[in-house]
Amino acid sequence: MHDTSPGGSLIDSLEPALARRDAEKVESLLAGRPSAESDKALRAIADSALQARRWLLAQVALQRLNVKDVACHLQFNLARNFAALQEHRPAAYEVLATAPADSRFQIAASATGLPTIFFTDRPGHATSFSANNDPLKAVGGLFGQLKAEIDHGAAFALCGLGDGYLLNALAQKPPSLYMTMQQTIHLIEPQTQVLILNMMVHDYSADAGPIKQPRFRWHVGREWRQQMEADCFGDLLTPLPALTINQGIDSATITAAIEEIQQIYTANDAVRKVEVETHYATVRQDEWVNRFSSFPNQPPRVMLYTTRFSTVLQYSTRDAAQAFGQLGWEAMVVIEPSDWQRCGPAHIRKAMAEFKPDLIFQIDHLRHEHGDLFPPQLPFACWIQDHLPNLCHPGAGEGVKLRDFVLSGMGSLFVQQHSYPRRQIVDLPQLARVPMRPTEWTSDGEDIIYVSNWSKTAEQIVPDILKRFSQPPELAALVAKCCTAVIDRYAAGQTVSTFYDVRLMLTECEKATGLTINKPALKDEVINVIFDRLNNTLYRHQALQWSAEVVRSMGLQLALYGNGWDTHPTLAAYARGPVKAGEELELLTRRSKISLQLEPYACFSHARLLSGLFAGGFFLVRDHPFNHLTQELLNFVDRQFDADACSVEQARAAVKESYREKLEEMLVRCACLGEQVDPIGMVRDWQRGGTLIAQGTSLPRLTDVLFDDRASLEVKVRRFINNAQLRYDVSTEQRQNTQSRLSYRAGLDRVVRAIGKLIAAETAVSKAQAA
Fold first, then answer.
1. Nearby residues of 301 by Cβ (< 8 Å), 6 or more positions away
2. Fewest Cβ atoms closer than 10 Å to its Cβ: which of 244, 540, 567, 643?
3. Residue 207 burial by Cβ neighbours in a 10 Å radius (0-12, 13-18, 19+)
4. Which pLDDT does position 769 carry in this prediction?
5. From the CB of residue 546, how many other CB atoms can be counted at a distance below 10 Å?
6. Mean pLDDT of the chain
7. Per-residue model confidence (pLDDT) at position 362
8. How far apart are CA 441 and CA 456, in angstroms?
9. Residue 659 and residue 640 in contact, taking contact as beta carbons nearer than 8 Å
């Protein structure tokens, strides 16, 4: 018999058990009771909890009901939405929790039976917030109209929440943007009752909902404008809406207010622009020279601009910032703190006004790409790490001015092909971070590892290449034939090593088809894309297949780290998932017995090999012609010519007759470097940048670690796999040879000194130009 005496009612016993989430106690209290009795108590507890704003208790009580009607579902949604708001949006919660009721807005069934919001502006006249009183069809229509803006990721504002279905759809179906980028949405609703009713109709509390996702910016209640101004002006990383969607009774007023906010935003930025330009216009040349000297009057400052939407660039930028700090510079990295924020011009200009940098440092972007954002007096260093379209076109270098400094390991190529001024090139190759290595370590991890995200197959890559060169059809047919020729070469067990090889194959395809690419720039682009995207992959995967065969025959482990290997048709068994750059990767490299270097480039200029050596790892390297030819050519040039001979033309003019034949023989052998490249100019670039020095081989004991087929790979694995001391001796010798010149600190120290000298020489340059 159940106790119903005063003080012992079911409600009094059940409420604390529900509040404690004591499921066992709740079950025992409700066991054997009629469902109507249980539901009556649960409803009473829920009603009381809703009145007291005990949202979690109301949620639990409503969830336990045996019979749930429409009112129950509405209350349950409200409770869980308010609980989420209280935790994640405390400011919006306070506005809504204390808002007065407004009878002009009501929940009612739409023409399709789904609940919607109706607005009564006068007696007997109610308007549905759903277009044509059909919520889902209305949302579908809006998505169709806004597809281009949504897919592009443009920030926009919901000017009124309407019936709430669009907000839910935007939260649950975000656009697929670049990498982890997210779209920012400003939710603006002055009518608190509309938002409360929508929180009864919809569940916004899920992890993917608009309450928990920071990309949704909530501006609600009568003070919505002040909230939005504080959000957008207080943190200039918050994107302003580029588009407005009108849904509520206040949409016109909201749109007008947003336009005013944008005008104020622009005016504030204009004031900062004048402030920044005035500051840099007053800095004298001798002050600039002092800031780049070995003993500046005050610590110089560098602003490094990057993006979180490029994994490699952001880590490289942070490593550069650390190196600048080691050189005595104050470093600021400008990067989006989260996926929904953006580093726009206003944010950067504000950072400049406050930080007053003496140098802007950015990877793969030139000053003129930013318009007038950076004053011309402020030194700007662009470190070219990738040969991107914005950097590699005939007029790219024409925008490079006196205070623009282009850091590159292939400066001659950019001068010859893209009109970059030689004076503004500062030779800087790939660099690597020097970590804090332990004094000793044990390689007790996996036997052989390879770290790369190049996991796509040729079948996945070729369609993207053909899409890029789809027009005219003749071009598409020629590119397709060349791709097939490259794939067939590997299927036959052969290899394509260089850009020059791809050029020869394309020429053969032109002869076979009678089709010709007449534009040199387009032909170069086709060759570069086929080599970089397709051949780069096939070259690596061929060596990985050799590796898989070797480990199976020897009973060893092979581990592939990076994205996508788990879906590879033949290598998925070796997938180990991604590894974070920095300390995690460095520890993995040290612990592994053998790391693989498989790229179709010179190994000594590749950042992965350098960073792995600096971390304490040991590498076996797939051989490549560049590993030998470049060193041999440099040694010859260094012996025969003075430092002024920096091109084939200059070498031919200066060579002694007795060495002319040797020079021509070397140039013939270096044809595989590519006809676009001046081989002597390239090795001189590498010499000035520290990539190569005059020595016997490009890396000490290089021949000890090279392989060029499955058999030679197995020989090297058998030699090194169980000999930790030999691995340590080889890698230590290679590390000591490279670390002093190819670390971030060493490379950027050379850059700072070079920029200082160039600024000091500006007066002479200006006089010469005037003359």
1. 329, 330, 331, 332, 355, 356, 357, 358, 359
2. 643
3. exposed
4. 65
5. 21
6. 93
7. 98
8. 34
9. yes
